[in-house]
Amino acid sequence: MKSLYIPNEFRVTARRQSIASPKYISFVFEVAARRPGRPTDERRQLGNSGEPPQPTIRRLQRQRVYQQGSCILMTVMIFFTLSLLLLTGLHRQLEYAIHITHHEQSYLQAYNQAASSLNWGITRRWSLKSLQYNKSRYYGKWTCETQAFHGLKACIKAAAASNLLWLKGEGTVPNQTQKIVLYQQVAPVIDLSAIDLQKVVGIAQRWLDFCPERDEKFCAD
Length: 221
Known about the structure:
Strand order of the largest sheet: 1-6-5-4-3-2
Structural class: alpha+beta
Pfam family, one: DUF2509
Keywords: Membrane, Transmembrane, Transmembrane helix
InterPro entries: DUF2509
Protein name: Tfp pilus assembly protein PilX
Shape: rod-shaped
């Protein structure tokens, strides 16, 4: 229940007059509310001018602190969101780089294996009697030798338009069926002491990493 301050002079007057009169009591309260003095609850709410009270400095400071806290929280959330997007992009780029590096490593491993097979095939002795070439465009099969310990495979075959030979070394890409094949044109080394097996020597500037003949069937296994 709200209390209303009434000056003493009006209290004395109220005692002398009939207090039971509602008209006089309302007049006293109305005059007391308008007189300057200690403000009543209503005047405290409306202020001296009768207008709604304005926000105090402390309340404004609290609102300002609250607004600043909300801005800081939004800034932190935006910062974390941008950081998450940046980390996601970096993670994808890293996965892509690892994928490319893995493919390059597999290719280099297969390439080195093919080069090793080719060098190993040059040091071998081959049975040249099994190498045949027919002018009817029928090519004989590749004669191959393998070394299981190092995974080497070298094959030799007579060239289509000359008395020379083609030697190829194969390398397999890990976890794939794709092969890398290197070719080297070689010439037989005549050795009268060897009846069947003959050595070969590589010809300079005759190294290829694709099929040396126009007809691709020549390079088929």
